[in-house]
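Severity: low
Component: inverse-folding endpoint
Summary: output formatting inconsistent between runs
Steps to reproduce: submit the following structure tokens with default settings.
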């Protein structure tokens, strides 16, 4: 069943790859396509959670109050983490020579860096850069019925996501799913035992 799902996803991704195959290596296209779909899911979930689940209001857990942008991130993250790892392992970086558990550990470390970067950038943009959402004239517009504060929160998330994507690409390509030569991998594994 899982192999069939993987084959269907690969067929869809590779169908979209056809017009780009002369210009972009397949792995980079697969990373961009699957990462783009996961990022789109991330932004949609963030929007729904921020605006509807948390009502753009602070979340009081009794022992701590969490701002709505951080609450939305904490809620949507486990979903996109799981989907992201599965897509990276089984669709994008299928040639990785690392064992699955090592990929997961390294992916987790990479994601920890992404979480920290996400947190710091969301705090920076929402609480420093866009703290007064009315400071620029064009903020006084209605974009899909969103308030200036909601627009600022979405811009913060989009900018943050773009920066984290660049970090994530390099970490996944060269760390989480590295493609060392098989002899080098066996040599390292033998010295660890």
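Observed output (run 2 of 3):
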């Amino acid at each position: 069943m899982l192999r069939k799902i993987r084959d269907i996803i690969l067929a869809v991704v590779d169908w979209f790859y056809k017009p780009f195959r002369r210009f972009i290596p397949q792995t980079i296209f697969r990373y961009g396509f699957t990462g783009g779909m996961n990022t789109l899911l991330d932004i949609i979930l963030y929007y729904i959670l921020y605006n509807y689940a948390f009502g753009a209001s602070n979340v009081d857990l009794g022992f701590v109050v969490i701002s709505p942008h951080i609450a939305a991130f904490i809620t949507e993250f486990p979903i996109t983490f799981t989907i992201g790892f599965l897509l990276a392992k089984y669709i994008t970086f299928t040639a990785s020579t690392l064992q699955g558990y090592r990929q997961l550990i390294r992916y987790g470390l990479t994601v920890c860096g992404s979480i920290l970067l996400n947190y710091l950038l969301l705090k920076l943009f929402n609480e420093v850069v866009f703290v007064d959402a009315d400071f620029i004239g064009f903020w006084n517009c209605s974009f899909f019925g969103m308030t200036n504060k909601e627009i600022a929160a979405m811009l913060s998330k989009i900018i943050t996501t773009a920066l984290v994507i660049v970090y994530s690409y390099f970490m996944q390509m060269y760390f989480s799913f590295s493609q060392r030569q098989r002899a080098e991998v066996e040599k390292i594994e033998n010295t660890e035992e």
